[in-house]
Amino acid sequence: MHWRGFGRGVLPVLLTLLLLVVVCPGVQSAPPPAQPVNITAFFDGLVGEWIGSYAQSNGKTQAPTKYFHAVVKATGLTTYESVFEYYRINEDTRKTELVGSSRMATTIAPDGTATNVITGNGDVLINKQENPESHQFSETLRMTSVGILQGLGTGSIDVNGSSGKVTNYASTWSMHAGSFRITQQIKVRFRVLFFSQVYNINTDFTGSRGSDIMGLINASEGHANHADGTTGH
Q1: What is the pLDDT of residues 9-22, one digit of tens each?
Q2: What does the alpha-carbon distance between residue 167 and residue 182 come to, in Å, rounded to a whole number?
Protein backbone atom coordinates (compact mmCIF):
# COMPACT_ATOMS: atom_id res chain seq x y z
CA MET A 1 0.00 0.00 0.00
CA HIS A 2 1.28 3.46 -0.94
CA TRP A 3 0.90 5.50 2.28
CA ARG A 4 2.08 8.70 0.66
CA GLY A 5 -0.70 8.60 -1.95
CA PHE A 6 -3.23 7.76 0.68
CA GLY A 7 -2.27 10.81 2.78
CA ARG A 8 -2.49 13.14 -0.23
CA GLY A 9 -6.07 11.90 -0.89
CA VAL A 10 -7.34 12.24 2.68
CA LEU A 11 -5.87 15.67 3.43
CA PRO A 12 -8.14 17.66 1.02
CA VAL A 13 -11.21 15.94 2.46
CA LEU A 14 -10.23 16.88 6.01
CA LEU A 15 -9.56 20.48 4.98
CA THR A 16 -12.95 20.70 3.29
CA LEU A 17 -14.75 19.47 6.42
CA LEU A 18 -12.78 21.93 8.56
CA LEU A 19 -13.78 24.82 6.30
CA LEU A 20 -17.46 23.84 6.51
CA VAL A 21 -17.34 23.92 10.30
CA VAL A 22 -15.51 27.28 10.44
CA VAL A 23 -17.46 29.05 7.69
CA CYS A 24 -20.88 27.77 8.81
CA PRO A 25 -20.80 27.98 12.62
CA GLY A 26 -24.59 28.50 12.72
CA VAL A 27 -25.33 25.04 11.34
CA GLN A 28 -26.37 23.05 14.42
CA SER A 29 -28.50 20.05 15.09
CA ALA A 30 -32.18 20.78 15.79
CA PRO A 31 -33.16 20.82 19.51
CA PRO A 32 -35.09 17.80 20.71
CA PRO A 33 -38.87 18.25 20.66
CA ALA A 34 -40.52 19.26 23.93
CA GLN A 35 -41.85 16.28 25.82
CA PRO A 36 -45.61 16.39 26.46
CA VAL A 37 -46.66 16.73 30.09
CA ASN A 38 -48.78 13.91 31.44
CA ILE A 39 -52.32 15.13 32.20
CA THR A 40 -52.75 12.36 34.78
CA ALA A 41 -49.71 13.65 36.65
CA PHE A 42 -51.29 17.12 36.67
CA PHE A 43 -54.44 15.89 38.41
CA ASP A 44 -52.40 13.67 40.74
CA GLY A 45 -50.66 16.86 41.78
CA LEU A 46 -54.03 18.45 42.58
CA VAL A 47 -55.05 15.71 45.00
CA GLY A 48 -55.37 17.11 48.52
CA GLU A 49 -56.84 20.17 50.25
CA TRP A 50 -56.62 23.74 48.97
CA ILE A 51 -57.72 27.15 50.20
CA GLY A 52 -57.72 30.44 48.36
CA SER A 53 -59.67 33.37 47.00
CA TYR A 54 -61.45 34.19 43.78
CA ALA A 55 -62.51 37.34 41.97
CA GLN A 56 -65.41 37.68 39.55
CA SER A 57 -66.14 40.44 37.07
CA ASN A 58 -68.33 41.04 34.04
CA GLY A 59 -65.98 43.38 32.22
CA LYS A 60 -67.45 46.47 33.88
CA THR A 61 -68.05 45.61 37.53
CA GLN A 62 -65.88 43.71 40.01
CA ALA A 63 -67.59 41.64 42.70
CA PRO A 64 -66.21 41.60 46.27
CA THR A 65 -63.48 39.02 46.86
CA LYS A 66 -64.72 35.60 47.93
CA TYR A 67 -62.93 32.54 49.29
CA PHE A 68 -62.96 28.80 48.71
CA HIS A 69 -61.98 25.53 50.31
CA ALA A 70 -61.43 22.61 47.92
CA VAL A 71 -60.83 18.90 48.42
CA VAL A 72 -59.58 16.84 45.46
CA LYS A 73 -59.61 13.03 45.60
CA ALA A 74 -58.56 10.31 43.19
CA THR A 75 -61.45 7.87 42.79
CA GLY A 76 -59.68 5.59 40.31
CA LEU A 77 -56.62 5.37 38.08
CA THR A 78 -58.04 7.99 35.70
CA THR A 79 -60.93 9.51 37.63
CA TYR A 80 -61.06 12.29 40.24
CA GLU A 81 -63.66 14.08 42.33
CA SER A 82 -63.36 17.66 43.57
CA VAL A 83 -65.60 19.58 45.96
CA PHE A 84 -65.35 23.38 46.22
CA GLU A 85 -67.07 25.35 48.98
CA TYR A 86 -67.47 29.12 48.53
CA TYR A 87 -67.44 31.77 51.28
CA ARG A 88 -67.93 35.52 51.54
CA ILE A 89 -68.01 38.22 54.20
CA ASN A 90 -71.47 39.60 54.88
CA GLU A 91 -71.06 43.35 54.42
CA ASP A 92 -73.65 44.12 57.11
CA THR A 93 -72.78 41.63 59.86
CA ARG A 94 -69.09 41.14 58.88
CA LYS A 95 -69.55 37.42 59.48
CA THR A 96 -68.40 34.64 57.20
CA GLU A 97 -71.18 33.03 55.16
CA LEU A 98 -71.23 29.88 53.07
CA VAL A 99 -72.27 31.02 49.57
CA GLY A 100 -72.49 27.68 47.77
CA SER A 101 -70.52 24.73 46.50
CA SER A 102 -69.55 22.87 43.33
CA ARG A 103 -68.82 19.23 42.68
CA MET A 104 -66.55 18.29 39.78
CA ALA A 105 -66.12 14.81 38.31
CA THR A 106 -62.99 14.39 36.16
CA THR A 107 -62.33 11.54 33.72
CA ILE A 108 -59.09 11.20 31.75
CA ALA A 109 -59.47 9.62 28.31
CA PRO A 110 -56.93 7.37 26.55
CA ASP A 111 -56.15 10.18 24.09
CA GLY A 112 -54.76 12.34 26.92
CA THR A 113 -57.70 14.71 27.28
CA ALA A 114 -59.77 15.17 30.43
CA THR A 115 -63.49 15.83 30.80
CA ASN A 116 -64.87 17.81 33.72
CA VAL A 117 -68.55 17.73 34.65
CA ILE A 118 -69.27 20.52 37.14
CA THR A 119 -72.53 21.05 39.04
CA GLY A 120 -73.28 23.40 41.90
CA ASN A 121 -74.54 26.74 43.09
CA GLY A 122 -73.23 30.10 44.28
CA ASP A 123 -73.40 33.77 43.34
CA VAL A 124 -73.03 35.29 39.89
CA LEU A 125 -72.49 38.93 38.94
CA ILE A 126 -75.21 40.09 36.55
CA ASN A 127 -75.03 43.75 35.59
CA LYS A 128 -73.99 45.38 38.88
CA GLN A 129 -75.68 42.96 41.24
CA GLU A 130 -74.81 39.53 42.58
CA ASN A 131 -77.57 36.94 42.28
CA PRO A 132 -77.97 33.39 43.58
CA GLU A 133 -77.37 30.90 40.81
CA SER A 134 -77.12 27.20 40.02
CA HIS A 135 -74.85 25.91 37.27
CA GLN A 136 -73.92 22.90 35.21
CA PHE A 137 -70.85 22.85 32.96
CA SER A 138 -69.05 20.26 30.89
CA GLU A 139 -65.58 20.93 29.51
CA THR A 140 -62.79 19.08 27.72
CA LEU A 141 -59.25 19.89 28.83
CA ARG A 142 -56.08 19.52 26.78
CA MET A 143 -52.51 19.86 27.99
CA THR A 144 -50.24 22.40 26.29
CA SER A 145 -46.52 21.87 25.75
CA VAL A 146 -45.75 24.16 28.71
CA GLY A 147 -47.87 22.18 31.17
CA ILE A 148 -51.00 24.37 31.25
CA LEU A 149 -54.47 22.90 30.77
CA GLN A 150 -56.85 24.65 28.41
CA GLY A 151 -60.54 23.82 28.41
CA LEU A 152 -63.52 24.45 26.16
CA GLY A 153 -67.07 23.57 27.11
CA THR A 154 -70.78 24.20 27.32
CA GLY A 155 -73.38 24.44 30.04
CA SER A 156 -76.14 26.44 31.66
CA ILE A 157 -76.69 28.88 34.53
CA ASP A 158 -80.05 29.42 36.24
CA VAL A 159 -80.59 32.80 37.92
CA ASN A 160 -83.82 33.78 39.68
CA GLY A 161 -85.83 31.19 37.76
CA SER A 162 -84.36 32.15 34.37
CA SER A 163 -82.24 29.60 32.55
CA GLY A 164 -79.21 30.94 30.70
CA LYS A 165 -77.43 29.00 27.97
CA VAL A 166 -73.64 29.11 27.96
CA THR A 167 -72.61 29.96 24.41
CA ASN A 168 -68.88 30.14 25.10
CA TYR A 169 -66.89 28.53 27.91
CA ALA A 170 -63.09 28.59 28.22
CA SER A 171 -60.78 27.83 31.13
CA THR A 172 -57.09 27.55 31.97
CA TRP A 173 -55.49 25.49 34.74
CA SER A 174 -51.93 25.87 36.00
CA MET A 175 -49.81 24.80 38.98
CA HIS A 176 -46.50 26.14 40.21
CA ALA A 177 -44.52 25.73 43.43
CA GLY A 178 -47.41 24.57 45.60
CA SER A 179 -50.04 26.95 44.25
CA PHE A 180 -52.62 26.72 41.50
CA ARG A 181 -54.72 29.03 39.37
CA ILE A 182 -57.94 28.46 37.46
CA THR A 183 -59.51 31.03 35.16
CA GLN A 184 -62.99 30.83 33.63
CA GLN A 185 -64.39 32.96 30.85
CA ILE A 186 -68.11 32.36 30.32
CA LYS A 187 -70.55 33.96 27.91
CA VAL A 188 -74.16 33.21 28.78
CA ARG A 189 -77.41 34.19 27.02
CA PHE A 190 -80.68 34.65 28.86
CA ARG A 191 -83.85 34.73 26.79
CA VAL A 192 -87.09 36.31 28.03
CA LEU A 193 -90.03 36.15 25.62
CA PHE A 194 -88.74 37.71 22.39
CA PHE A 195 -85.68 39.34 23.93
CA SER A 196 -82.27 38.00 24.85
CA GLN A 197 -79.39 39.40 26.88
CA VAL A 198 -75.77 38.22 26.78
CA TYR A 199 -73.45 38.50 29.78
CA ASN A 200 -69.72 37.88 30.12
CA ILE A 201 -68.62 36.37 33.43
CA ASN A 202 -64.90 36.11 34.24
CA THR A 203 -63.69 34.29 37.36
CA ASP A 204 -60.11 33.92 38.60
CA PHE A 205 -59.26 31.37 41.33
CA THR A 206 -55.88 31.33 43.08
CA GLY A 207 -55.09 28.88 45.87
CA SER A 208 -52.43 27.09 47.87
CA ARG A 209 -52.35 23.92 49.93
CA GLY A 210 -54.13 24.13 53.27
CA SER A 211 -57.37 23.53 55.16
CA ASP A 212 -57.70 26.52 57.52
CA ILE A 213 -60.16 28.56 55.47
CA MET A 214 -61.16 30.68 58.48
CA GLY A 215 -57.54 31.55 59.15
CA LEU A 216 -57.12 32.63 55.55
CA ILE A 217 -60.25 34.79 55.65
CA ASN A 218 -59.23 36.38 58.95
CA ALA A 219 -55.79 37.21 57.62
CA SER A 220 -57.14 38.52 54.32
CA GLU A 221 -59.93 40.61 55.80
CA GLY A 222 -57.82 41.97 58.65
CA HIS A 223 -60.42 41.49 61.36
CA ALA A 224 -61.77 38.79 63.66
CA ASN A 225 -64.39 36.69 61.95
CA HIS A 226 -67.06 34.57 63.54
CA ALA A 227 -67.72 31.05 62.42
CA ASP A 228 -71.48 31.54 62.33
CA GLY A 229 -73.00 30.17 59.15
CA THR A 230 -69.96 28.12 58.12
CA THR A 231 -69.46 24.39 57.98
CA GLY A 232 -66.88 24.42 60.72
CA HIS A 233 -63.60 24.45 58.74
Answers
A1: 443 433 343 333 33
A2: 20
Q: Which domains does the chain have, with CATH numbers?
A: 39-221 (2.40.128.20)
CA distances from 146 to 75, 143, 184 (A): 27, 8, 19
DSSP state of 76: S
Element holding 180 (H helix, E strand)? strand 179-192
How far is residue 141 from each of residues 24, 116, 150, 164, 170, measured CA to CA in Å?
44, 8, 5, 23, 10
Rounded-to-integer distance, Cα 215 and Cα 178, Å: 18
Position with higher pLDDT, 9 vs 77: 77
Q: Where are the beta strands (DSSP E) in 35-178?
A: 48-57, 66-74, 79-89, 96-108, 114-126, 129-143, 149-159, 162-176
- State the pTM of this model: 0.78
Coil/strand/helix, residue 3: helix
33, HSE (Cβ side, Cα atoms, 13 Å): 4
